[in-house]
Design brief:
The chain has a six-stranded mixed β-sheet, with no helix packed on it. The chain is built from three helices and 19 strands. Strand 10 and strand 11 form a beta hairpin. It has 310 residues and is an alpha+beta fold.
Length: 310
């Protein structure tokens, strides 16, 4: 397995001797029985965002790994998550996102433990890890599946506005991973249908959620908003109660008064319109009475003038 080291050395990886060494090493490794096995957990390991986690891995049978080379990596062996060799940690080709965040637990090396500690867990740390141990030309590896989870804030409930004959109530929460389940429940714990639900991922890759529900006066006004992380089997819930005064009430006397006012305003408007028409007609009549004598005088003068000319 030393061929892995050769493949990363400049000017040698593409040479024919390097390929020959590689195939000979693999061939010998297949012919010779393995001196040990590398064993990891048979179930996913769950880490909490912001905390630290130890990825377990050990040799079987138990033997000292102090003089072996240990490499933890993701999809490819280089750049790696962490490497230990020649009795010390080697950081030259470490993945940038893991720098100053990893530690091989050397106290367990003498007993065959090659566990890795990762600090300040992030959502991006989720995925598969390879634990590879090299001893001379012999190597073995184990796979480990890391799951990441985060418990967000307690849901906060707000009265937003009036909508569709009721009150729109909104529930918000942030800081969850993976994407959480969100639901409204009545006082008996029965789910209630929401009018909207939005889950979005922030720059930190954590999820924030917003859901709303429309409450009417006749509906159940005692309810709760629940946000659940199924990976952690953890949920956070906030209770909410809205009192009757929040709902707009219709007073029969106010309705009657409103109708009366509308009728009165209509009557006033109609009276004003009829009065305006009446005044217009009266003005026209007065004008005609004033103009008629003048027109009659003009006619008499014209008649007299015509008679004189004849």
């Amino acid at each position: 397995m030393k061929v892995l080291t050769f493949c990363h050395s400049s000017g040698f990886s593409s040479s024919l001797p390097g390929l020959v060494v590689y195939f000979i090493t693999v061939y010998v490794h297949k012919l010779e029985p393995a001196q040990f096995q590398v064993v990891g957990p048979d179930h996913p390991v769950t880490a909490i965002v912001g905390e630290e986690i130890v990825l377990p891995c050990h040799l079987s049978p138990r033997m000292s790994a102090e003089k072996m080379e240990v490499t933890w990596f993701r999809s490819q062996i280089s750049p790696f998550v962490h490497r230990y060799g020649d009795g010390k940690d080697q950081y030259e080709l470490q993945m940038p996102e893991y720098q100053r965040r990893t530690e091989l637990l050397k106290d367990g090396l003498i007993n065959g433990s090659v566990a890795l500690r990762i600090f300040s867990i992030r959502p991006s740390d989720e995925g598969q890890y390879h634990c590879l141990v090299l001893d001379g030309i012999f190597y073995e590896e184990a796979l480990l599946d890391l799951k990441v989870a985060a418990s967000g804030s307690a849901p906060r409930i707000f009265v937003e506005d009036y909508q569709d004959g009721g009150i729109r109530v909104v529930c918000r929460s942030a800081g969850w991973y993976p994407e959480p389940e969100v639901l409204w429940r009545d006082h008996k714990g029965q789910p209630l249908p929401s009018s909207s639900l939005t889950n979005s991922q922030e720059a930190s890759r954590l999820y924030k959620t917003e859901t709303s529900i429309i409450l009417t006066e006749n509906a159940n006004q005692n309810l709760s908003c629940l946000v659940r992380n199924t990976r952690l089997s953890l949920e956070k819930e906030s209770l909410f109660y809205i009192s009757d005064p929040f709902f707009p009430r219709v007073n029969p006397w106010m309705v009657a008064l409103s109708v009366i006012l509308v009728v009165l305003l209509g009557s006033f408007a109609l009276s004003a319109y009829l009065f305006k028409i009446k005044e217009k007609h009266a003005a026209e009549l007065r004008w005609r009475r004033f103009v008629a004598p003048i027109e009659e005088g003009k006619v008499n003068i014209l008649s007299m003038f015509s008679s004189h000319l004849m």
